[in-house]
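Data deposition worksheet. Section B asks for the primary sequence of the deposited chain exactly as it was used as input, without tags or linkers unless they were present during the calculation. Section C holds the resulting structure in token form. Section D is free text for depositor observations; keep each observation to a single sentence. Incomplete worksheets are returned to the depositor.
Section A, Depositor: J.P.
Section B:
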Amino acid sequence: MQTKLTLRLEKTLIQQAKRHAKQHDKSLSQVVSDYFQILTRKVEEAEAPPITRSLIGVLEGGRIEVDDYKKHLEEKYL
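Section C:
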């Protein structure tokens, strides 16, 4: 189901967006919709080379915690 959305943007930005949409044979609504889909796409679904996709989940535990990474950077650079 499609719903109306009102955005408040600078006039020059709207003009640029309209030109971009026209150059790509799309409506401005389609350009915005495409962008929102890209923003909300999951990391696993993002376009990545096959070798990168094949590495997803190979680390034991599945994820590196943010605190562990911060600790690593502190030890490396401080």
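Section D:
Residues 11-77 form one domain.
The chain has four helices and no strands.
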